[in-house]
């Protein structure tokens, strides 16, 4: 399986085991073991407390602009509600989401980030074995967990343009397939499947097997360019969409996400979660403000597009071909040993990720502020000589 998660990268990069040549030290607790339990513990126990101060933190696809001022205000106000369990407040956010997506509030389940939903789906669909069908070069948090829970993962190679090969995925559907997992825009390639193609695929496949659409990066597409798969859910199709506030809303540390799907599917997934009460009142109230703050979302998207275009152009001028990205990161082949490149970048204060696919090393760089991307390009020039 040739795919990509934070945990894998950290392991491959030595961050979890040996530490960087930049002098990182890792506690024993952060070292992964092969036991299933450690999977849950280590997903977010990823970075050591003594990570060197970076000039550009471009390894985790975070929002460099922070949370919306309106969200901050709501968060502070909500502190006074901290003694109460969250209850009615979910309804407000679900109502707003349901209006945008054309579904009912009962089609929505909130969660502390989308990773918990991926884990729930892994546990549910891997139960009793079977196959999960997906693409190579994709985000494998769900896949790795499902494999540990007993599922077989079949990853179809990407097209030559680094896109999901939906025709081949469709051709590989067998009675053994329990779920199809699609990440769109995809991590780490940043590529998309055109909305019409995706919709046609879901219409054909979902009546046979659930289609799980991980839409963590969908907010970086212009609203008119986004697939509108909520309508398939409204029609009763077994399509599951997951979304996160970690990206355009800047809530990676606050933790908020949601799934859109059939009520019975959400009920099944809920068995493997702590329920919506796992979301704090402060995060939820900030989430409501952020969801409504379309200006802030537009601002972050515009800044992302500008900084991404600048970086892709600068890399192209240096002779590096970036895979056209629709998200807040980009992937391109490099000509150095990945570990050497990564260590040299980190030791100069630029945090990125590297990965090998089919023996070819790649750099994945998140889109930071323009200043961070200028620092990235300058350092990149020095490192590659
Ligand atoms: C494709 C994809 N899905 C899901 C996630 C999970 O994000 P979170 O748990 O912060 O919502 C990530 C995180 O980077 C991601 O890249």
TrEMBL record:
<comment type="similarity">
    <text>Belongs to the class-II pyridoxal-phosphate-dependent aminotransferase family. Histidinol-phosphate aminotransferase subfamily.</text>
</comment>
<dbReference type="InterPro" id="IPR015422">
    <property type="entry name" value="PyrdxlP-dep_Trfase_small"/>
</dbReference>
<protein>
    <submittedName>
        <fullName>Aminotransferase class I and II</fullName>
    </submittedName>
</protein>
<feature type="domain" description="Aminotransferase class I/classII large">
    <location>
        <begin position="58"/>
        <end position="378"/>
    </location>
</feature>
<dbReference type="InterPro" id="IPR015421">
    <property type="entry name" value="PyrdxlP-dep_Trfase_major"/>
</dbReference>
<dbReference type="InterPro" id="IPR006311">
    <property type="entry name" value="TAT_signal"/>
</dbReference>
<dbReference type="GO" id="GO:0008483">
    <property type="term" value="F:transaminase activity"/>
</dbReference>
<dbReference type="InterPro" id="IPR050106">
    <property type="entry name" value="HistidinolP_aminotransfase"/>
</dbReference>
<keyword id="KW-0032">Aminotransferase</keyword>
<dbReference type="InterPro" id="IPR015424">
    <property type="entry name" value="PyrdxlP-dep_Trfase"/>
</dbReference>
<dbReference type="GO" id="GO:0030170">
    <property type="term" value="F:pyridoxal phosphate binding"/>
</dbReference>
<dbReference type="Pfam" id="PF00155">
    <property type="entry name" value="Aminotran_1_2"/>
</dbReference>
<dbReference type="InterPro" id="IPR004839">
    <property type="entry name" value="Aminotransferase_I/II_large"/>
</dbReference>
<keyword id="KW-0663">Pyridoxal phosphate</keyword>
<keyword id="KW-0808">Transferase</keyword>
């Amino acid at each position: 399986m040739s795919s990509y998660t934070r945990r894998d990268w950290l392991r491959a990069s030595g961050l979890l085991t040996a530490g960087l040549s930049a002098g990182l030290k890792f506690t024993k607790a952060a070292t992964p073991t092969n036991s299933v339990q450690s999977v849950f513990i280590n997903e977010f126990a990823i970075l050591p407390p003594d990570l060197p101060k970076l000039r550009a933190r471009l390894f985790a696809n975070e929002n460099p602009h922070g949370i919306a001022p309106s969200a901050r205000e709501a968060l502070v106000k909500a502190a006074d509600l901290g003694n109460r369990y969250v209850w009615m407040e979910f309804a407000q956010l679900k109502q707003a989401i349901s209006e945008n997506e054309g579904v009912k509030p009962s089609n929505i389940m909130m969660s502390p980030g989308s990773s918990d939903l991926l884990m729930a789906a892994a546990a549910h669909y891997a139960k009793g074995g079977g196959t999960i069908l997906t693409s190579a070069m994709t985000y494998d948090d769900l896949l790795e967990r499902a494999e540990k829970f007993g599922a077989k993962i079949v990853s179809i190679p990407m097209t030559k343009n680094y896109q999901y090969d939906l025709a081949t995925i469709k051709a590989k559907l067998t009675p053994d397939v329990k779920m199809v997992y699609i990440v769109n825009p995809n991590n780490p390639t940043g590529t998309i499947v055109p909305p019409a193609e995706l919709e046609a695929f879901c219409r054909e496949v979902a009546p046979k097997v659930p289609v799980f659409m991980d839409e963590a990066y969908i907010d970086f597409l212009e609203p008119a360019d986004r697939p509108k798969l909520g309508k398939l859910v409204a029609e009763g199709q077994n399509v599951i969409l997951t979304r996160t506030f970690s990206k355009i809303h800047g809530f990676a540390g606050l933790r908020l996400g949601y799934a859109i799907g059939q009520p019975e599917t959400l009920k099944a997934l809920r068995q493997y979660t702590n329920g919506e009460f796992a979301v704090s009142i402060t995060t939820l109230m900030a989430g409501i403000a952020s969801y409504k703050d379309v200006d802030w979302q537009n601002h972050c998207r515009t800044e992302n597009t500008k900084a991404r275009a600048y970086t892709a152009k600068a890399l192209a001028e240096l002779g590096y071909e970036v895979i056209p990205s629709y998200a807040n990161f980009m992937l391109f082949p490099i000509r150095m040993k990945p570990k050497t490149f990564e260590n040299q970048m980190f030791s100069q204060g630029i945090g990125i990720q590297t990965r090998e696919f089919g023996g070819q090393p790649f750099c994945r760089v998140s889109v930071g502020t323009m200043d961070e991307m200028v620092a990235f390009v300058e350092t990149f020039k020095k490192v590659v000589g």
